[in-house]
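Researcher: Here's a chain I'd like modeled. Treat it as a single chain, no partners, no ligands.
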Amino acid sequence: MSDVFISYARSTEAQARQIGEALRALGYGVWRDDEIPAHRAYADVIRERLKEAKAVVVVWSAEAASSEWVRSEAERARADRKLVQLTVDGAELPMPFDQTQCANMNGWSGGADHPGWRKVVDSIAALINGAATTPASSPRPAAHARAKLSICVLPFANMSGDAEQEYFSDGISEDIITDLSQVSALSVTARNTAFSYKGKNPEIPDVARKLGVTHVLEGSVRKAGNRVRITAQLIDGAAGDHLWAQRYDRDLDDIFALQDEISEAIVAALKLKLLPEEKKAIERRGTDNADAYDLYLMARQHRWTGYSDDPRQLEAILRLCGKAVAIDPAYAHAWALIGSAQGALRFRFGRQDLDSSAAIEKALALDPSLAEAHAGKAANLRLEGQYDEASAEARIALNLDPECFEANLAAAMVCLSQGRIAAAVPYWEKAAVLMETGVGSPAMLITCYTALGDMDGARRAARMTLTRAEAVLAQDRGNGLAMSNGVMALAVLGEADRARDWIRRALVIDPDNQTMRYNFACTLCTYLKDIDGALNLLSACLTPTTRSELEWTKADPDMDPLREDPRFQAMIAEAEAQLAAAEAAAPA
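Model: Modeled as a single isolated chain. C-alpha cells:
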C-alpha cells in the first residue's frame, strides 16, 4: 500500500515522475500507473490503489482536464475527501474541481521553497498525519503512522451438502465484504478478487502475500431448513495464526443480527473502533424479512453468473425479486435488480412490453444511495438519448460503489453511445472483471480495442471472451449470445473457418435470435471482411427495429465498414421511416 496516488495525463508524465520522486524523498510511499503488474487488469488495480491511498494528487493539465481516466480518479478522490490538486500549465479545471483549492506549480523545478509545492506537501501531510507540517519538518510517515489494516474475505464454503445452496453461502460472504468495506480504518479486498479463490483451498500466507493484506477471513455455511450454522476464522496473514474464531448456530430469522455480530466481532478482533455512522451502515440490510432476503440472494446469484447474457437468467431474476418485493414492498435492492433485469430484457432481447423506469424510481425513492438504482436510471436515460443526464447518473453510481457491475456497464454504454471509445475501455475492463463469467463485456472490449487500433488488446479480450463462451456452451449448447460473441473472438484470433462453422450451426439452432444475428453481422463485416454476408444478416435485424437499437447500430464501431455502402444506408433510411411512422401514430 502507498500513502500517495498520483493521477496524471501522459503529456505530464515527466512532471508526475518528478513529483513522485520528491515525495519519496520526504518519506512518503508513492504509486503511479507505471507499476501495474502484467497479470492484473488495469482498471482493477487503479481502483484498489485509489481506495488504499491516503492522499490522491491530481496533476491537472489541458490533456488531463479532458481525460475520462483523470476525471474519474479525481472524482473518486474528491468523494473520499483525499483530493490534492495541482496544475502545471495553468489549465482551466473542469467542473466541479474548479470549486476546490488547486496549487499552481508553474515554474517548479523541484525546489522545496516553491509556494505551490509547499501547499501540496502541507495538504498531503494533513491528510496522512492529521496536521499540516512543512517539508523541512515533515517526519517519515511510516515511522509515525500505523500501517492500515487490510483483509481478504475468502468465499465461505457451502457445507449444506446441496449445490443448490451455493447462493446462500456466496451471499453471506458478499455481505460480510460489504459490511467490512464500511470501516474506514480497514482496507477490504474487492469481491471479484476474493472470489477468484472460490472452490480452491489456498494456503493463507500465500493469499496474504499475493494480495498484500494483513489478515484473511475464511469460513463455512451450513443451511438446513430454518437453521443456519456459520463458522468463521480470522487469520494473521503473515504468521498464519488464528486471531479469532467462532461458530454460530441460529434460526434463519436471526440471519441479519448474526451478520452484524460477525462483522463487529472481526472489527473488535482487529482492535479497531467503529464510528457511529459505520455501525449504522453495517446494520442497514435493506429488508428485515429473512424470506425476502433469501429470495434476493437467489436472484443475486443469477446476476453473478452472467445474467445479462441470458434471457432465461433475467426471467428468473424477475420471478425471484417479484416474490421478494411481494413479501417486502420496501426492499430497494430487489426493486433495483428488477429494473436492471427488465432493462436488459427490453434492450438486448426485444421485450418492448417491459419498462424498467417504475422499478428503478421505486428503488431510488426507497434508497437514494443505492448505486444499482442510479445505474439503472443511467441506462434508461441513455436509451432515451439523454446522454449528459445518463453520464451524470452513471458518475453518481460509480461514486457510491466503484465495484458495482451495473454502474461500470452504464458508464461504458454511455461513453460508447457518444463515440467516446477510449473513455469506455476502463469501464468495460472493470465490468469484465466484476462479472467474471459474463461474455458480453470482454466482447465489447474486442470492439473497442479494434476501433482504437490496439490489436494486442483486442486479442487479449478475444481470448477472455472465447474462454468464457466455451464455458457457457459446455453447459448450454444453444446459447446464442455465447455463440455470437465466441464467433467474434475466433475471428480476431485468426480462426476464420471455425468462426464460420459456429455461425452456420447457430443459425440452424436459433434462426430467429436477432441479437445473435446482429453480432454475427458485426463479425462478418469487421473481422471476416464479408460485407455481403453481414448485410444479409443485418437486413432482418433493422426492419423492424426499435429506436434504441437503431441508435446503437449508428454508434457501433463494428458497423463502420458498412457506413458508405448504399445498401446499408438504405436499410437505415427505411428503419428511420418505419420508426417515424410508428412514433407519429402512437398516442401522446
